[in-house]
Amino acid sequence: MLPIPAPAPLFEALLHLTFLVHLLFMNALLGGGAILLGSLFARGGDRELHEVVIERISKLLPTLFAGTVTFGVAPLLFLQTLYGGFFYTSSILMGWPWFATVPLLIVGYSAAYLNAFRGRRLGGGRRWAVVVAIGCVALVGFAFSNNTTLMLTPEKWGRLYFASPGGLHLNLGEALLWPRFLHMALGAVAVAGLLLALLARRERADARLREALVRRGLDTFLAVTVVNVMVGFWYLLALREDVRRLFMGGSGHATGLLGLGVALSLVLLLLAWRVRAVPARSLKPLSWVTLLTLAVMILMRDAARAGLPGGAGEPAGDPGADPDAQPRDLRRAAGGGDRHGGVDGAQAAGGAVASGRAASAAQRLQAPPRVPRRSAAPRQK
Fold it and tell me: Most exposed: 22, 145, 317, 324, by fewest CB within 10 Å?
């Protein structure tokens, strides 16, 4: 495996920065769709308020969809550059569920456009167009959560592959999967609530409707953030013990990030409550603290990954590093004996045979082509 073409810290910084931008669009898309569904299926309450929410968010969904996909490319490329050996292996093990992300995005994008430009003509079918659009986004996010947790547990790879090499593996037995996915999904709804409050400030309707929209957005933000704080502690408890210990005083960096994240969550609740009580207050402090909280959450996930043993959290080497370092770490992690679960002797032998065949094939490909000898010209009598 070749080393990466620049220092790893540079790629890690770019990964975090581009993922933050992608996260903003994804949160607005997934969370905005959830709020939109709430208004579409609502049977009571202020009907005028629901109609404004439906129209404003419906028009935004295609743009948010495009932004989510476009700004998701860069962090995915940086992830593959830094952790390619791990990410590609988990993608192969997932196989068809991973391939399905592309058609799911196409179907979801089409449904979002259908709702935005033909929503009124669809009548009752409009609800189901939004269900399809947001359901596809949620399924893609779930596939990514499966992949990014499976890539961090190489001790499972041998068992999964030899149990069924057809590529239909999800990481459903992983303790981190559900709290990780729910923490991200609930955070998306909270951010979308803040977005709704920001959109309300630009609303040209009467002051009563603007205040109602601000309160609706902040009510969503407050309620979901409270639930998400509890899910965050579930996420912390689901970490493996040695990694969790880093956040409980074992590492100053990880412990500081956890303390900062908890403090920012409390500040978010306080700021949202103050603006809800007086809707004329500025939303800028709440918006900036929300952005800072998202950045801290990204760094906490990175600290948890870096704390994993067996090389699963270590990026590829810098220029000039040993090009065999990450493949060697992969072999150690996947077949590391009792420490990681390992694979049995038959599986290890099968892997060795497969590696030998791959090496032989590579040598044949790299060998220069044989030039056939010309046959001697016939002698003339």
Answer: 324
Closest CA to 134 of 183, 181, 64, 199: 64
Q: Which two tokens stand for residue 34?
A: 């959830």
Structure tokens at 268: 């978010």
- Give the C-alpha distances (Å, rounded to integers) separating 127 from 29, 47, 49, 217: 16, 16, 17, 20
Query: Does position 278 have pLDDT exceeding 90, yes or no?
Result: no
Which CB contacts under 8 angstroms, 24+ apart, belong to 59-63? 59/116, 60/28, 60/32, 61/29, 61/32, 61/33, 61/36, 61/112, 61/115, 61/116, 61/133, 62/109, 62/112, 62/113, 62/116
Average pLDDT over residues 151-166: 87
CB 154 within 8 A of CB 334: yes
CA distances from 184 to 86, 180, 294, 310 (A): 22, 6, 10, 26
- Of 130, 231, 233, whose CA–CA distance to 181 is shortest? 231
Q: Give the residue carrying structure tokens 């669809």.
A: 122
* Cα dihedral sign, 241-75-145-60: positive
Residues 6+ apart with CB under 8 A from 165: none
Average pLDDT over residues 76-102: 92
Residues 6+ apart with CB under 8 A from 156: 150, 171, 341
pLDDT tens figures, 212-257: 888 999 999 999 999 999 999 999 999 999 999 999 999 999 999 9
